[in-house]
Design brief:
mainly alpha
């Protein structure tokens, strides 16, 4: 079982981590940003529906599930997918991957103001301070990982907006914890998120034309290997190991993104990305470890968990938020 668990974690991390590389490659093939996000999500949604059909499970009917799923579909999937995808035009896959590592810290900060039972603890503040130091290094260095054509400030702004959207979605889902089953909300999230992105694509770009076969292959990879498969494996892991153990994926995904970008796309491992990224990941690790120790102390109140975020950079946030809410 140990080998199966590590294999699942490795495949999930590789799927999420290489999603940014595939995105940048698809953009280079002429795929428009909204079309890329929409078709990627549509393929993942189709895979989810096929999976439900094979497992003989019906679509959820609960009003609460559809309400939470609608909010998650927009803030946890459609908006972040669009924002991150646009951001990949201005910075490397590693740069965007490191920004996505801020999701659990952004959630902790937003929860301090929106959830009365989740104030900023010393551990969270320490992790946040270290990670913000990493962000400062990343921005002050001016490094984007793609040379003179990069626009790191714009990429950071888009990434930060995506992080805020995902953080809000997690907090909204927390308010309804215990009133829905995570797989049901995840299904609605994929279906409605696809609808939101298709509308955005139609308004902003229109239907894609003259798409190359390679571009479609990249979209299929992102939809199935970088979205649906990691989502499925993450649920499989959470049935067999603790959320703390599964959260190790969160430390691997940004490293995979940086390494894959450098090896496959020739992205630059510039000093600002290396040092800033190390500080960001250190901040996430500090927060996770501190929260893990707090959870180990009784009493522990277990709440229903929320669904994982559907993007290559989302799993780390979910595991972290699960631990904080227990």
């Amino acid at each position: 079982m140990r080998r199966q668990v590590w294999a699942a974690m490795a495949v999930a991390a590789m799927g999420w981590g290489t999603g940014g590389v595939a995105t940048r490659e698809a953009l280079g093939e002429g795929v428009e940003p909204y079309a890329l996000a929409a078709y990627r999500t549509a393929l993942a949604a189709a895979a989810v529906l096929v999976y439900l059909l094979v497992r003989r499970r019906a679509l959820p009917r609960s009003a609460v599930v559809w309400k939470v799923g609608a909010v998650m579909g927009f803030f946890n999937l459609a908006a972040p997918f669009a924002l991150f995808t646009i951001g990949y035009q201005y910075a490397s896959a590693g740069f965007i991957g490191l920004l996505a590592a801020l999701i659990p810290l952004g959630t902790a900060l937003l929860a301090h103001f929106l959830l009365p039972d989740e104030p900023l603890t010393g551990g969270r503040m320490a992790g946040l301070a270290v990670a913000l130091g990493g962000v400062a290094v990343l921005l002050l260095s001016g490094d984007s990982g793609i040379g003179d054509g990069g626009r790191p400030l714009l990429a950071f702004g888009l990434g930060l907006a995506a992080v805020v959207c995902i953080a809000y979605a997690g907090i909204f889902a927390k308010r309804y914890a215990g009133r829905y089953e995570p797989p049901e909300v995840a299904t609605v999230q994929f279906v409605l998120g696809t609808g939101f992105l298709l509308v955005a694509m139609a308004v902003a770009e229109g239907a894609p034309v003259n798409q190359s076969g390679y571009g479609w292959a990249l979209l299929a990879y992102m939809g199935l290997v970088s979205t649906f498969l990691p989502f499925l494996l993450f649920y499989w892991l959470l049935r067999r190991v603790s959320a703390t153990y599964a959260s190790v994926i969160g430390y691997i995904v940004p490293l995979v993104a940086v390494a894959a970008g450098a090896l496959l796309l020739g992205e630059r491992l510039e000093p600002g990305i290396v040092v800033g990224g190390a500080l960001i990941l250190a901040g996430v690790v500090i927060t996770d470890r501190m929260e893990g120790r707090a959870i180990a102390r009784p009493p522990v109140v277990v709440a229903a968990a929320e669904p994982p975020v559907a993007a290559e950079v989302e799993a780390p946030a979910v595991a972290g938020r699960r631990r904080r809410r227990r």
